[in-house]
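Notes taken during the Thursday session

The instructor put the following on the board and asked us to keep it in front of us for the whole hour. The protein is Transcriptional regulator, LacI family. We were told not to look anything up and to reason only from what is written here. First, the residues (337 in total):
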Amino acid sequence: MRRFATIKDIASALNISVSTVSRALRDTYDVNASTRQAVLQKATELNYRPNFNAIGLVHNRTHNLGILLPEITNYYFSTLFTGIQEVAYKAGYNLTLFVTGNDAEREVDIVRNLSLSGLDGLLVSVSSQADSDQHFQEVIDNGVPVVFFDRVSENIHTSKVMQDDYNGAFEATVHLIKNGYGKIAHIAGPEGLTFTQARLNGYLDALRKHKLPVKPSWIVHSGFTQQHGEQDLEQLWERREKPDAIFAVNDRKAIGAILALKRKNIRIGKDVGVIGFTNDPVAAIVSPSLSTVAEPAFEIGKLSCELLLKHIHKKRFEPEQVTLPGKLIVRESSSRL
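Then, after some discussion, the predicted C-alpha cells were revealed:
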C-alpha cells in the first residue's frame, strides 16, 4: 500500500522543525512567506495529504459543511452548488446537501434535526414559504456558523451573499419602457421573501421614474415554476385592461407566460414583450429567445462558501453582506421589430 507523506517527512526534507511545518500549513502569522512557500512546495512534491480526522480531534472540526437548498434540479441552484463545491473541496471540506422542496415545515424539520456535532458550518438559501428564522438562530447559538445566500433571512446577524435584485429588476423594466412598452405587468415570486420584494421594488420604481401607471391588478404573486408563469398570465388576461409587457421574477415563469401567450395567438415581442431573470440556458433556445437579467450564480456560491470558511476559522469574524451585480441580456422577446 502506498504510504502518504507526513509532516515529519516534510520537516526532515527541509531540515526544519515539525511545529514550523504545522504552522506553515495552517498559515499562521508567525511563519514567514518564504518558509511557508517552501513547505507548500515540498508538501506537493511529497504528495502530502492532511489527516482531517486527526485535525478534527485537535481543532474540534469535522471538515463537513451542510448546504440547505430549496431545490437542486434547476439550472440556477445547480450552478450555485457547483460554486460552493469548488471552494469547499479545495479547502478539504465534504458537503452534505439538504433539499427543502420549498417547504417551510420541512426546512424547520431538517434544521432542528441536524446533527450539529457533525457539521462545521451551514450554508442556507431559505424556503420560499418560510416566515420564521428562529431555527437558524438556534444553530448559530449552538456554535455552528451559518451563511445565507440568494434567498436570505433579514433578521439573522451573519454573512449574506445576494445578487442585486433591485437594480436588475429596475434595469429590466426600463429596458421594456425604452422599447415602447407602456403597460407593464409583473409576475412576482411568493410574498415575504427578501428578493421577491427587492425585484418588485425595482419594477415599481422604474414605472414611477418614467411616470407610467402602477396597477396592483397587474402584479401577481405565486411560485417559481413554469406552470406558475402560465397561471399568472391567465390571471392577468382575465383583467379588463391587459398589459403589453411582462416582467417575470425568473426565467421559468417568463417561459410559462410565453407559452400561455402563444396559445392565445399573441405575438411575443410584437404584441406583448417579455423579460425574465436568471439567464437559464433555455432562455437562449426558446423561440423567440428570452431577454433576461443574468445572475452570477457560480460566483454567489463561491463567495458564500469562502465567507463560511472565514466564520469557521475566525471566531470573531465580522459578518459581511455582499451584493453582486446582474447583467441585462437583450434577446427577441422584448423587441417590437
